[in-house]
Fold VWA domain-containing protein.
Amino acid sequence: MRAVVVLSLVFSFAFQGKGQAKEDLSPIIFIYDASGSMWGQLQGKSKMEIAVEVLSSSVNALPDAQKIGLVAYGHRNKSDCKDVEFLVEASQGTKGAITTALQTIKPLGMTPLAYSATQVIEQLRTSKTKATIILLTDGIESCDGDICRVVAEAKEEGIDFRMHIIGFGLKADETEQLKCAANAGEGQYYDASDAGALGTVLSEATSETVDKPKGNVSVYAVKNGVPIDALVTAYDQVAKREPISVRTYRDTAFFYLPPSKYNLEAKPLEGSDVNMITVSGVQSFDEKIIHQDLGFDGGKVRLTTTNNGANWDCLVKVLDQSGKVAATFRTYDAPKEAEVNPGIYKVTIQAMRIEGVNTYAEIDSVQIGGAAVTPLAYEFDSGTAFIDAQVNGGSIDAVVTVSEVKSGKNVAGGRTYDRGKEFLLNPGTYSVKIAPVGVHKDKSAQTITIEVKKGESTSKTLNF
C-alpha cells in the first residue's frame, strides 16, 4: 500500500518569525523512543546519543513562536508497556526545556507505540487542540498495540492532528505498520539510517505542520516498475510563485500547490543514471486532488542491421541531443537492444568487415519513449572482389590498393600472400592497383578498374 505523505522541502518559515504570537502556531509534540534498543550503535555512537544531538539541533532551529511538547516512552521501567511520560507540556514548552529534558532520558524499556500515541491523542481530545505529532522510533511495537488503528480511529472521530513517523535504523520489513499510521495521520513516514538522514527528515517533518494546507497534488516516481526516491519541484507558470518541492521517498507524495498551472521537474535521488524529467501543464485545484505518475522507465531501441538481407555485425552508438553518447553496442550478427532515458536521439551505425564509401550510416530524430521499445533497421549492400597476382601461372605476393572511382577515396588494401586477396566492398566502381613485392618487387605495378555488384562476386587475375 502506498503511504500517503505530505511533504514540502521549501522551508517557508518566514511567516513564523520572532514577532508572531505563540497562539498562532499549533504545537509540535515529539514522541521520543527511550526503549532499551536505543543503546544500539550507529557510526560509533549509541542511537540515543545521535537522537539527542540531532533532535536538540532540530528543535533549536524551530521558530521562536513555535509551541513544543515532548513525550517519552520506555525510560523508567524495563517491562512496563504503559511507561509513557509527558516530560514537557506543549502549552508551556520551550526549546531549552526540550533540550534539557532530552539530556535526562536513559533508554531502558519497551516500545509501546500505540499506547504512547493514544496518550497524546487523548490530551488533544481533552484540550480540543490541534497539533503536529512527530514519533521517533528505532523499533516496532513490542506491547501488542496497533498504532495504525489508534490513529485511524482518532481521525474518524474528528481529532485534528497530523502525524509524522521517523523510523531510525529500521529494516524495510519493519515499516508497514508505521507507514500505515503515518498515512492514517495524514503525515509522512521517513526512513533515517544515520545522523545525517535523521537531521534531514526532522527538518522536513517539522516544516510540515498541521497548520499547512492538506496536499492537493500527489506524485509517484517509478522506474521499470519499482518506486524510486525523487525530488519533485513545481514551477508556477501563471502566478510565478516560488518553486514548491516534495520528496517521494519511494512512495506516493502529496504537496499543496495553490490553484494554478505548473511544470513539474522530477530528479532521481538514489544514484540512478536516469536524467531529470519534466511534466508540463499540471493544473491544481483546491477542491480536488490531482495525481501525476512520473515515469523514469528507460526506453529501449531495438536495432536490426543487415547486409544483403542477412543479419550483420555493426558498431552502434546512441547519442542524445547534446551529442553525448548514451549507449554503445555491437550487434554481432543479431538484433540488439539498448536502454536509454526517454528522449530524442541520433543513432550511428558502422558496418564491420564491409569496405567502401557506404559503410557508415546515421538515423536522426529517433524518438524513444519510456517503457517502450523503438524498432530500427538498417540495410547495407555489398559484393565481393577477388584479386590475384601471378607470374608464370603461379600466385605471387603483392600489395593491393582499392580506391572508389567517383570519390577517389582509398577504401581498402591488403596483400595477396601468394594466394590472392578477397575484398567485401559496397557496390560501385573501383580502381585497383596491384604492386608485386618480395622476389618480384622489380616488376611494375598494374592498375585495373572493376565493377562490384550487390550480392555478386567478381574475380580478377593480373599476370606479371
